[in-house]
Amino acid sequence: MSSLASNDDQDQAGIPYLSALCKAAGDELRLQILRVLQRDAFGVLELAQMFAIRQPAMSHHLKVLAKAGLVVTRKEGTFIFYRRNINDGSELALLREQIFTQLDTCDLPSKVLAEVVRIHERRAATSKIFFGKNAEGFRQQQDLIASYSLYGDAVLELLEPERQKGATSVLEIGPGEGELLVALAPRFEQVIALDNASAMLERAKALVGVKSCTNIRFILGDTASKAAAKISVDCTTLNMVLHHVATPAAMLKDIYQLLKPGGTLVVTELCQHDQDWVRDTCGDLWLGFCPEELGIWAQESGFKEGESVYMAQRNGFKVQLRKFHKEASTLQNRQQ
Question: How far apart are CA 318 and CA 315, in angstroms?
């Protein structure tokens, strides 16, 4: 009897959760909010702006979605961002995934899409303006968090197996002052540096000029720009860049397209932290990322996960080095 009662209690306990989920997903506005949160996180003010409703009303909808387990919150210093609850291992995870899958086939109103674009543009402009004004102090700002000397050799070590397998071209996105470019030049036939801040690109060019590296090409733009569209490389490195990017998940999708079949991406990034001062001092848009979140974004972009290395800093930051692979083409797989 006690076992049967326990099962009955468990079944009854699941009904309120299922009811809350169905109620939350039964509202058109809340479904649109979930659609917007497909691959991005937004604050309550940003979401209120997108849907042209007052903040208290948006907060109510987000509370309903959170109670149903459809969204989770992420605290970024004094800010709170909302994103989809991708997988918490609960019994309703499959139903939630089915809702999201069906939802992602639906289109959003053009006015909402326009607001999303404006918010992304505002985020990107904030980062670009910061680096335009602070290019000369970049090294000092970077050293406050994680200097190139911490991760530079580890990045080269992760790239070495690809070079030995025949990789001849590499792209560095956001090369900073160019230290890694100088190390990549003798190892690869073709090296490309891509940055959307002209002041930072000029500083990298200056160091490369001093070191007389002649096989490095510099491109001004971001991964979604026309300037980057023709790039096709064997390897890409992305070091301490994602936390400055308006749409990190979208950048990973862009990088996937820039890589040749069988290509490799090496990411150096901060783990999630609570040191809010980096927003003003270092121009960070995000306070790092949890490894699971980064892995999910990469997987959704098409990548397969490879090696991972984690480094703890005395200043309280933790750095993650992640290696991701783009699968080779079907023809290449058959030949192998």
Answer: 9
- DSSP for residue 104: T
pLDDT score of 89: 63
pLDDT grade for 9, boundaries at 50, 70 and 90: very low
CA 190 – CA 184 distance, rounded (Å): 9
Judged by DSSP in three states, 231 sits in coil
- In the block, residue with structure tokens 């892995």: 295
Supply the angle between the helices 28-36 and 93-103 in degrees, to the nearest 10.
90
**Cα diameter, the chain:** 82
Work out the pLDDT band at 274, boundaries 50, 70, 90: confident
CB 239 within 8 A of CB 151: yes
Can you list the positions of beta strands (E) in the chain? 42-43, 71-76, 79-84, 169-173, 190-195, 216-220, 233-239, 259-270, 304-312, 318-325
Give strand pairing partners of 82: 42, 73
Q: Where are the domains of the chain?
A: 2-108, 137-335
Q: Rounded distance, CA 211 to CA 308, Å?
A: 31
User: Under CATH, to which class is 2-108 assigned?
Assistant: mainly alpha
Cα pseudo-dihedral 143, 271, 172, 128, rounded to 10? -70
**pLDDT confidence of 335, banded at 50, 70, 90?**
very low
> To which CATH superfamily is domain 137-335 assigned?
Vaccinia Virus protein VP39 (3.40.50.150)
In whole angstroms, what separates CA 328 from the centre of its chain?
23
